[in-house]
Amino acid sequence: MRIQLAVNKIGNNKMLIFNYRSKLDLLKSIGNYLDYTETSMFGLEYESNGELLGCNRPTITGIRGREFFAKVVMENDRIKYVK
After folding, report:
1. For residue range 51-78, what is the model confidence (pLDDT) as tens digits?
2. Are 16 and 47 in contact (CB under 8 A)?
3. C-beta neighbour count of 2 within 10 angstroms
């Protein structure tokens, strides 16, 4: 049962690529629209309200900077919180 709960929790997360040079640049964008790239070939993962997980992958985006992972909370298509 514990394993099933963990799989369900992981399965609900959305993973995007955040097009920012660093997590600090992402933090400075609170209140603005999110600059992202979809990664799923099975449909859109972006949600205008809710939590999104993502990362910066310099090898994919071509944006020089640090690789980072972040959780972004969205509200009305705007960045509300970054962790």
Report:
1. 999 999 898 888 888 899 999 999 999 9
2. no
3. 6
